[in-house]
Amino acid sequence: MCITLFVTFIAPIVVGVIVTLFSYWLNNRD
């Protein structure tokens, strides 16, 4: 299986979720 292709599709999703949760956490801190 092409692991690189798998990472290419999954990585942006994981990063997007982390950034969204981090931004949500920062907004709730204030």
UniProtKB/TrEMBL annotation:
<keyword id="KW-0812">Transmembrane</keyword>
<dbReference type="InterPro" id="IPR025882">
    <property type="entry name" value="Toxin_Fst"/>
</dbReference>
<feature type="transmembrane region" description="Helical">
    <location>
        <begin position="6"/>
        <end position="26"/>
    </location>
</feature>
<protein>
    <recommendedName>
        <fullName>Type I toxin-antitoxin system Fst family toxin</fullName>
    </recommendedName>
</protein>
<dbReference type="Pfam" id="PF13955">
    <property type="entry name" value="Fst_toxin"/>
</dbReference>
<keyword id="KW-0472">Membrane</keyword>
<keyword id="KW-1133">Transmembrane helix</keyword>
